[in-house]
Amino acid sequence: MRGSDQDLWLGMYRKLWANHSDEALLAEIGRVGASSKRSAFVAESQDGIALGFAEYALRDYANGCNSQPVPFLEGVWVDDAYRGQGIAKALIDFLITRAERAGFTEFGSDVELSNYSSQLMHERLGFEQTEKVIYYRKVLGS
């Protein structure tokens, strides 16, 4: 996807990350578009209907991976009407093929602990669970 796809991109982002504001999502789209280490790809039907997207980044480090840097699946989403048809698999296979051709030996990803459907999808696609982590933060100056 490119900057000219912003409206399409934002619509899909809203469905995947519904708890984020449009302002935050647009800022993230801008960061992806400006980065040489991040990309997003859309899956379209033959008549040009957007079915879903996948986004990845080249991370300096990824929990559970041994190599550095490592390609990392930042997000994958498929419209409810098209789920179960192999679209997420095709998107992720595309990203993995790109990574393998670039010489990478691992591909990382993460899933929220409560997102069981995504955990199952990852396992079905051959990802292996490496660890479970709960992140914490402390707001400073309060």
Describe the 3D structure.
By secondary structure, this protein is an alpha+beta fold. The protein has a single domain, classed as 3-Layer(aba) Sandwich (Aminopeptidase), CATH 3.40.630. Helix content is 34%, strand content 20%. The protein contains four helices and four strands. The chain has helices at 6-16, 22-34, 87-101, 116-124, and strands at residues 38-44, 50-59, 70-78, 108-109. The protein has a four-stranded mixed β-sheet, with helices on both faces. The longest helix is centred in the middle third of the chain and has 15 residues, at 87-101. The protein starts with 5 loop residues before the first helix and ends in an 18-residue tail after the last helix. The model has no long low-confidence stretch (mean pLDDT 92).
Q: How would you concisely characterize the structure shown here?
A:
This protein has 142 residues and is of the alpha+beta class. Helices cover 34% and strands 20% of the residues.
Secondary-structure blueprint of this entry?
Elements: H1 6-16, H2 22-34, E1 38-44, E2 50-59, E3 70-78, H3 87-101, E4 108-109, H4 116-124
Parallel strand pairs: 3-4
Antiparallel strand pairs: 1-2, 2-3
Helix pairs in contact: 1-2
Brief descriptors of the model:
34% helix; alpha+beta; 4 strands; 142 residues; globular; Aminopeptidase; 4-stranded mixed beta sheet
Classified by CATH, the class is Alpha Beta
SSE pattern: HHEEEHEH
Count of discrete domains: 1
> Approximately how much helix is present in the residues?
25-40%
Strand content: 15-25%
Distance between the termini: 40 Å
Inertia-based shape:
globular
CATH topology: Aminopeptidase
Task: Write down how many β-strands occur, each being a DSSP E stretch of 2 or more residues.
Answer: 4
Instruction: Please mark out the parts with pLDDT under 50 across 5 or more consecutive residues, or reply none.
Output: none
Average pLDDT works out at: 92
Question: How would you classify the helix and strand content by structural class?
Answer: alpha+beta
Assigned CATH superfamily: Gcn5-related N-acetyltransferase (GNAT)
